[in-house]
Specification:
The structure holds two protein chains of two kinds. Chain A is mainly β. Chain A contains three helices and 34 strands. Chain A has a five-stranded mixed beta sheet with strand order 1-28-29-30-31, with no helix packed on it. In chain A, strands 23, 24, 25, 26 and 27 form a five-stranded antiparallel beta sheet that branches. Chain B contains 14 helices and seven strands. The chains are: A mainly beta, B alpha+beta.
Chain lengths: 552, 422
Amino acid sequence: MTLRQKLRATAALFAPATVGLVAAIGIAGSASAQTTPSGQDFVNAAADTANWILPHKSYTGNNYTPAAQITPANVRNLRLAWKYTADDTGPMEVSPIVYNGIMYITTAHDHVAALNAATGKPIWSFTDDPHVISFAANRGVALFDGNVYFGTLDGHLIALNAKTGQKVWDKVAVDDTANSFYTMSPVPYHDPETNRDMIIMGVSDGDWGGNGNIAAYNPQNGAVIWRWDTVPGPGEPGHDTWSGDSWKRGGAAAWTGVTIDSATHTMYLDLGNPSPDFLGSVRKGTNLYTDSMVALDISGAKPKLKWYHQFIPHDTHDWDPPMQPVLFTGEVNGQSRKLLAAGDKAGNLWIVDAETGKLVDHTAVSFQKGQNTQPTLEGNIACPNTLGGVEYQGGAYDPATNNFYVSSENECGFWKASKDAVYIAGEFYLGGAFPKLVGPDTGQVNAVNVSNGVFSWRHHFNLPNYGGALVTASGLVFSGNLGGNEHAFDAKTGNILWSYDTGGYIQAPTEAFEVNGKEYVVVASGEAGNAKIPELPTNPPRPNTINVFSVP
Amino acid sequence: MTVLSPDSARPARIAGPVAFLALCLLAWVLMPGTAMAAATLADDHAQAVATLADVNAAIAELVRADASYIADPKVYHGAAERAINALAGTHGDGYVASAGSSGDAAGAIGHIDSLLNRTATLVWTSPLEGAEANIRAAVAHLQDAAKAHELMDYAIAASRALDYLQVARGRPNETGVFGGLEGVLANTELGVPAGAQQQDACRAPSATPSYGTHGGYIAWVVLPAGNGTHDLAGPSAVTSLSLQNGMIVLRTAAAKLVADACAAHAKDDPPDPPATQAAAQVTQTPPVSSGGPPPALYTKAQAERGQSIFATKCVACHGANLQGTAAPSVAGNDFLVTARHNGWTLEIMRYIVFEQMPRNAPSTLSPGDSADVMAYLLASSCYPAGHKAFPPRDDPKFANIKLGPVPGRHPGQNAKGVCKLN
């Protein structure tokens, strides 16, 4: 084959019909390097003060920014730089992606917008509004190969041109659109072994009678490159942890985040709860790999399990670990160790060894009660309820303080199991009902000393705190409270140094970025969605906004 | 669909793309020109035509290789690869760039994927899903054929592929899954070319040339009965041909389905003037050929009580328009189409409302209040009110009532397919 023929063949193979040959050839060149990050940019994301290109800053999942212009000394001068009001209903759960001065956001019904990151001025927008199976949420996009990628509530993966917002391709990627959908941000990855780009995405289907999987897709057309199923099938190790056929609707959704150690080609995932959620008697056994962290070797053609650590064997309360695993090097008993942190909805912060998965430490960060009792037909109380504990907004490790920062909720529930679990396509597969809230609903921001698992400080709030934690190299911790206040804490003492009422309810993480050398902080705020509790006023309705702050 | 008044018609100019004419069914294109043409399906029609063309191109490759009597394996491998390319398209799985293609860039699968890439389930959804499954099976066998070492291995794999492709192509005298691509083009709105006139098939044909459509199906095609030639090439699905008021009416295989549906509506609703009917056509409601009118399951007073309970207990998540804010839609097109797709019965809807809702405090409404909410939701989904209230206790017959879009016209129905209480 001559070189020209080769070029033609390559172009034909990869050209999406709507882009055409010129754009397809451009992918390999420098044209798209300016609109979207390269594979190496993602590997180096942790050190980038300007851009925020992965949902939790870098592949490590650590919400730590080296940007240090905003400090404990000047944070009191932090002011609203701009506010963008979204044209959508539903909760705001997005991790905005910021690259070269453009911010890409999503809202609950799969609306996507590109905004000028310094002014908030809209550049383009895309509206999907698909059918909602159960609840509306979209946690963000991925930027790669000149495109913006996102998953939808009806199980599509969609690629938009990052410059124009025009659709490049659109593919149904879930097995069953009746019970499976997407909420998480896709994660771009360049496989150095095969030199292939991929978009990694996990499906949300665990409470609806589906089984989870994590899959890598070709960014050019959505074709599956590999897929790893989270519930072992017949003949696979771990299959015997499910009684009878219960594994077929076992859950273990991969719905939160993807942590990658690019040095060792290892992927760490925290997997969802087993289902039916509240009726354990129909799925006897420990139910692997539900409520587990798994370490997958992704150096080969298909992922291979290196180890797993199950946090809650045979969960009957929907207490999965939604916080993306945070990979960090921390100090334990005077020794520097490579660690992973996980947070679950039962209110636990777990620290495990990154090489072996063995438990290093465990701290209860929420009020816990009735955790060893299964829901009964008559009903019983257990805490936290299904909204945590620790949720999906992410944690942060600060090498300066050796603290791990995580936010948490104290909510209690009255749980009821049913006699049997009935699978209805498109409906929750619970074997019971979601718990009724009991008692006050409160929360806190916690700093846990990694050396010994003891709190360095805790800040208590009268409302749950879903904001996760962002820690800055300058010694600040940011987190938003459900009530609507965004707070900045002193990372050492936990003193609140600044706060701002966003006018909406906060259940999105905080991020930091720079445009033209100036540092900004961003958090989304809006309707309460599933986080609604009796303590929140229903009126007036809360606007869905993106709030960006800077020191003038 | 668009309803035309008789005086907006123009004389017929019959033409048709060669590929389309040579291959199938009621293959004429009633050329555009009228102000009110059905524009929404124009691109879909082109996609469907292109799908069939790609499938036929793949079949032609295999037939041609078979007829060549050449023993060179390259001829056979090349034919299999070009057939794969016509089916898979340039970016589909299995595409062989070096082989060339007698199809187009999107390929049959690409065209079907773009047709199926929508939330709504339409009358042509299952036939196209079936066709796609058969095309994919054919591709798998063609991949074996392309690698076959012996001519006999090639022949076995290629003939299996041909079997699947013939089922995918289908036949124009079937309206369902067995109709395949030809059935879809002959009997559903996908067969209506860009700009062609459409009329409601529940009414008598009044303009030529035009397509009589209802609920997504083509019931008849009408042509002027003057001198002249109308190119009706290839197999067609004409089940009856009649002369009516100076027009030739060709009835399709779907005519019976549509006639039954029209008869069922006539019992429910007095006829409306055409203008309101055009406005009411927001869903692709499939004709219901049996079972009669939808059941009356609640009283009007009960639905009104349910509305005020909904406004305090449900509205925060499901929205005042019932289309959902954080939670799903609970009435109208999106809800009903999904319910039908998932096979939901009234029993299932009742179970969710009574046992699972509100999500943060399940079964905290009294059975009476839950029944009232059911009444409101049914009314909002255009189910008719009756004289008996929705009961607070379960009823075994609910398991036999399937949910789905309610046939007929619903005055006051909004764009989301939600009916107002009245």
